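For the sake of transparency, this paper describes our internal protein records without simplification. An entry from our holdings is shown next, in its original layout:
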Amino acid sequence: MGLKYDQFYFENKIYDYFEFWKLYDKFGEQIYEAYNEKIYCPLCYTAPLTIVRRGKRHFRVSKNNMHFHASDCSYRLDEASRKETRDFYKSAKADDIKRRLQACMDYLTKKSVQSRHDELGSDGESDTGRSFFTIKTQSKKTVRLPQKFLHRGLSEEDTGIEKIFYGECRLYWIKKGKYNYLKVLNEELVELCSIYVSENVFSYLSKDISDIKSDKDNAEKYFICFVTELEEKQKSENKIYYDGVLQHSSHILIKKCENNTLRIPFQ
């Protein structure tokens, strides 16, 4: 199955998928006709997205349109296998992971993409501007690291493999002696996942991360990018929780949202 896009590019801005579906639910077919294949890949801005309305709603790039991706766009590539992903993270240097997460953060926080164009240059070529998910395997194959946009929520498909998780979430710490758990919540303060951070790794975290509040009711909003392998935990009859371990202090990056604001609406 091809990549399902959680975001899209339209008229110099990047929007979250649910912003489109709000309009679709209100105006129906006229919105579909107006925007089908007129919204684009959020990394390279050039591959048109097909709007899939049946089943689980999503956006995708049809096989016939894959060639419209920029040559260095990570989203034109197949996703790395579990083994390829594990091999990459075992051998990757901390600076490489930090660079990729910083590029992912830049992608998340720049609501206007003009600044990204300015940084990339007129030809759009950059090692991180739209290829920060791209890796070469030990067999020299070029593939895309698994990743997940947190706004869509988590499922069994997100477990059992290391992924780059990213999005705009509310965060708070639970600290119990030597045990530290970073709780990642959605806008309604519902837990998406819990990340265990050992005392040793915690001691190396940047101050902006270690200073996150320990108060769920007043959990503040952050942009977050992190690498972990999630595990599914059935902690109650009606609720499945997801737990992960932060293996290294370089595997997480956050930025506090200005004025606790939401991302821009699509209109």
About this structure: Residues 86 and 92 are 10 Å apart (CA to CA). The helical segments are 17-27, 29-35, 82-91, 94-109, 114-120, 199-204, 207-210.
